Amino acid sequence: MQDIKEEIIAAGLPEHIAIIMDGNGRWAEQRGLDRVYGHKQGVDTVKSVVEASGEIGLKYLTLYTFSIENWNRPRAEVDALMGLMTDAIIRETSELMRQKVRVKVIGNTGDLPEEVWHKLEGLIHRTAANTGVTLVLALSYGARWEIVEAARRLMADYKAGKVTDTEEVTDELFARYLTTAGIPDPDLLIRTSGECRLSNFLLWQCAYTEFYFIDKFWPDFEKDDLYLAIRNFQQRERRFGMTGEQIKVKGEKGEGINVTEK
Length: 262
What we know:
Layout: H1 2-11, E1 16-20, H2 24-30, H3 35-56, E2 60-67, H4 75-98, E3 102-106, H5 114-127, E4 134-141, H6 143-159, H7 171-175, E5 188-191, E6 210-213, H8 223-234, H9 244-253
Parallel strand pairs: 1-2, 1-5, 2-4, 3-4, 5-6
Cofactor: Mg(2+)
Protein name: Isoprenyl transferase
Keywords: Magnesium, Metal-binding, Transferase
């Protein structure tokens, strides 16, 4: 797939890719193994995809690591996932530094075990000055929770006089209250395992995102699969509610696309 890798870099990359890493448990169950083993294999896939993202020059990679709904899974599986996360942070920190990966976390982090959050805070701080791909981990994350929390914070600022008029509330202003403030919206969202839904992930941010679904379970996802998803993305025409001719004219004028133009 080396030719595809060179082809996608030459054609221009998406700025931000988000991935719903689905199918770890089912991958293990199909092999008669404990679901936790699937999550362990999934960590290896994360390493591979992060490395590939850095190699091709991707700016942002967001991984749906643990959803708010995942807290409802059996306690033994949740505890195992938290342990895997802590171990991975400790084990992979030096490699992330070598690759110049910058780590950020979005989600209701107050629900994470203290030890896990302590390790994450240290990783975020240590990688803050890195200039490679920004790896965004969505942990204890849910898009509806995020939007409600943003609305609460906006209301609090309105009561405090920081926002003085409802006419000030625009898409751009509201986005500043989301956990993804300062991060560009995903250009491409990939979901593994053959499922075709968002599962409460980045609902606001994916308004104009291109979706790519693949039947492979996450532990079987390879660098080549990432390259193929990007190539598929590059073959699409993103119109943002405009006609193809309007986009062509904007391109000829050297104007960017404003996604609020509908």
